[in-house]
Design goal:
With 212 residues, this protein is an alpha/beta fold. Helix content is 40%, strand content 14%. Helix 3 packs parallel to helix 4. It is globular, with a radius of gyration of 17 Å. The structure holds NADP nicotinamide-adenine-dinucleotide phosphate.
Length: 212
């Protein structure tokens, strides 16, 4: 990433730990003058504006106002998850949570952002999954369904924006990493046991490179 992002303002959604937190740390080190808003259910205090919000709830007008008032140049949505185990053994409420946090919330957010004008906003990035958006993911059916849906949505919006349906003043990207060594992938899981999971810092660097 060669461009000086010091004048840039990042909103990182789901960044209290894992890839979101690693992305914040790499960006803050590289671009000390950049401004940040970090959002999650349990976000702590730091050299950033912190906002506690639960993406399993509907998008609220108060949340949109916080976003508009921050004048972001880049918004990155990291949050995702879901129950692990046989589909039928898990409560429907847990599958609904997975679909809401991993697909419906970012879908509703991008829909809203496309309908209002935030002049500063240049880029909206959603984190997908190279595995779950393309293949079956046994034990994670609702998470996998959400990631497939996210890919379908974002690639369609990208296609519409190249066509006569062009309607969007900011770029929409899908960043789809492979396995990452975070809380989402327990230490005893086979990808980590077989050392197939990249460090969150390495993946954060790839994500930041992809912003150009
Ligand atoms: N780990 C992997 O192997 C892997 C592979 C491919 C793709 N990905 C993708 O990478 C992204 C980041 O995953 P990760 O591994 O960093 O996960 P993680 O370590 O579990 O972190 C998830 C982040 O999302 C936030 N979050 C979760 N539910 C939320 C909710 N309802 N409301 C608000 N914030 C919420 C969490 O913060 P709080 O708990 O504070 O709310 C946390 O900051 C996800 O989209 C994931 O699908 C991960």
């Amino acid at each position: 990433m060669n461009e000086d992002r010091s004048a840039h303002k990042f909103i990182l959604l789901g960044a209290s730990r894992g890839l979101g937190w690693a992305t914040y740390q790499v960006l803050a080190k590289k671009y000390p003058a950049a401004e940040f808003m970090l959002v999650s259910r349990k976000i702590g205090e730091g050299n950033f504006k912190s906002l506690r919000y639960d993406f399993s709830k509907e998008l609220s007008s108060e949340f949109i106002t916080e976003i508009i008032n921050f004048n972001p140049t880049t918004i990155i949505y990291f949050a995702a998850g879901g129950p692990y185990g046989n589909f039928q053994d898990k409560k429907w409420a847990d599958h609904q949570w997975a679909l809401q946090v991993s697909f419906l919330f970012p879908a509703q957010l991008v829909h809203h952002l496309m309908r209002i004008s935030i002049p500063s906003l240049k880029k909206f990035v959603v984190v997908g999954s190279a595995i779950a958006e393309n293949k079956p993911d046994p034990g994670a059916a609702s998470y996998c369904a959400a990631k497939h849906a996210l890919k379908g949505l974002i690639t369609t919006l990208q296609a519409e924006n190249k066509s006569a349906f062009n309607c969007c003043s900011f770029q929409i990207d899908l960043f789809s990493p492979g396995y990452i060594a975070t809380d989402m992938l327990p230490a005893q899981s086979w990808p980590r046991q077989q050392e197939l999971a990249a460090s969150a810092e390495n993946v954060a660097n790839q994500l930041i490179d992809s912003l150009n």
